[in-house]
Amino acid sequence: MQAPDIQLYNAIFSASLALGYDTYDYLPNAETAYPFVHVAETTEDDVVDNKQVITGTLAQTIHVWGYANNRAEHSSMVYALKMALRKLSKLENYYLKYSTLNANTIYDNSTDDDLLHSIITAEYRIY
């Protein structure tokens, strides 16, 4: 049985792929075409193992990168991902209860292209 954090990570990665987005488990190199999704950091809080029953809180960070001159496409991607994140309720061995969903979009000029970078954090109670 996989740990709850990797089960959540895999579910979110699969949801992004199902939406048709180029999705990575690492920040790809500079030659990668935009837009893309990077499923990144996982945080576990207050996870308790009580006779092999794990409960607690899991949070997953998802990064969305796209061109600043195509804000509508970028916004649509973020919205679709947020809707998919809200619908997650079951993992392989755990149930999820959606707690919070935060998104922050910033301009990024760290490359030769003007980019939008959205950071989505989804938090769930697991049981």
Structure commentary:
The chain has about 130 residues and is α+β, with helices and mostly antiparallel strands. It has one domain (about 5-125): 2-Layer Sandwich (STM4215-like). It is about 25% helix and about 45% strand. The longest helix is centred in the middle third of the chain and has 17 residues, at about 70-85.
Question: What labels would you give this structure?
Answer:
25% helix; single chain; 127 residues; alpha+beta; STM4215-like
Number of DSSP-assigned strands: 5
CATH class: Alpha Beta
Give the CATH architecture.
Answer: 2-Layer Sandwich
The fraction of residues assigned to DSSP E strands is 35-45%
> How many helical elements?
2
Shape: elongated
CATH-assigned fold name:
STM4215-like
Gap between N and C termini, in Å? 15 Å
**Can you tell me the number of structural domains?**
1
What profile does the largest beta sheet have? 5 strands, mixed
Structural class: alpha+beta
Indicate the mean pLDDT: 93
